Prior knowledge:
- The protein is mainly α.
- The protein has four helices and no strands.
- It has two domains: 1-65; 69-96.
- 82% of the residues lie in helices and 0% in strands.
- It is flat, with a radius of gyration of 18 Å.
Amino acid sequence: MSLIKEKIPIVELLAGLAEECCELAKAALKLRRCYDGTNPTPEDSDKQYENLLEEIGDVELYLDNLYINRTVVNEYKDMKQKRWEKRLMDKCDQKE
């Protein structure tokens, strides 16, 4: 067991995960604004991409320290990927 799991209660890990997810969302939106030219900050897309990677790392650190069954998560990801692709294919078929 890691020191983090030993010293930090699960409720605090969950709160930290929620906060880091918010930071990740903000980083993704800032990078989007860089790409579409509406970024009000002076940082370029390379810096914003670096910030996005850092926030992903923070989220993954919390996930690693929670008792998350990655096999089950990957099953959900696969299911959602297939559903997303089906929706895109259905949308393309409707346009034809």
